[in-house]
Specification:
By secondary structure, this protein is α+β, with helices and mostly antiparallel strands. Strand 4 and strand 5 form a beta hairpin. The N and C termini lie close together (about 10 Å). It contains nine helices and six strands, in the order ββααααααβαββαβα. It is globular, with a radius of gyration of 17 Å. About 45% of the residues lie in helices and about 20% in strands.
């Protein structure tokens, strides 16, 4: 699984509404467009934006850096830094949610539960909480196994959960395992349908062809290590 998680020019102040509470974050650069570029697969464009605006004192830029980091463990460390050093920043709850989904995706359910509890305690109004309603298996960290699959295919992104579930059901009927994860893009929560588990890019070609020929969908290969 992938948890999952997930995303979201320059502005002096960002005013965010969470549960009727207004928060103002001074000096954080708006990375919304860069996050949308990543979702569209335009990684180089987002990376160039990061290069031009990089600052270790801007938690939003650090969040973008973490999202662009390919190595899962390195990204995990960056999300942890955001949460610990900038707990009041724009993407602090998103960073904590991604820590939770990382551990959930690799089967580290005890750690996932710990960070889920932190998310609930520190950010009770976070929009990510409604996507954490999942059963954590009763297991110990010593029994957990890392998911070795590297790739999946993003088959769709929907604002409505019902639409995502409908597509997932259709693909499962074709024999492909599916999972629905949640990502914040431009301030909205999207339900992302990931299909298949592949160790290399070539294994995904039959699914990509099926999506285009039968469902008229142009799927996109997703590097799971980037999203963990």
């Amino acid at each position: 699984m992938t948890g999952n998680t997930k995303y979201l020019s320059g502005a002096l102040f960002l005013i965010i509404f969470f549960g009727g509470i207004i928060k103002t974050f001074a000096q954080e650069i708006d990375i919304k467009d860069a996050l949308i570029d990543i979702e569209k697969g335009e990684i180089d464009k987002a990376a160039e934006f990061l290069k031009q605006n990089y600052s270790t004192s801007d938690p939003s830029i650090l969040f973008l850096d973490a999202v662009l980091t390919k190595d899962g463990k390195s990204a995990l460390n960056k999300y942890t830094t955001i949460f610990e050093k900038f707990p009041e920043s724009r993407y602090a709850d998103a960073a904590l949610y991604r820590i939770f989904t990382y551990y959930y995706s690799v089967g580290a359910y005890n750690k996932a539960e710990y960070y889920l509890d932190l998310l609930k305690a520190k950010y009770p109004s976070s929009p990510y909480l409604k996507f954490t309603d999942r059963n954590l298996p009763d297991t110990t960290d010593e029994e957990e196994e890392i998911n070795e699959y590297r790739y999946a295919v993003q088959a769709g992104a929907f604002l409505k959960r019902d639409n995502a579930e409908r597509l997932a059901d259709q693909l499962q009927a074709e024999g492909f395992e599916c999972v629905i994860i949640n990502r914040e893009i431009g301030g909205s929560i999207f339900n992302i349908v990931l299909a298949g588990k592949f160790e290399n890019e070539s294994e995904s070609l039959p699914l990509l062809e099926l999506l285009e020929n039968k469902f008229n969908i142009k799927g996109r290969l997703v590097d799971l290590d980037r999203d963990r």
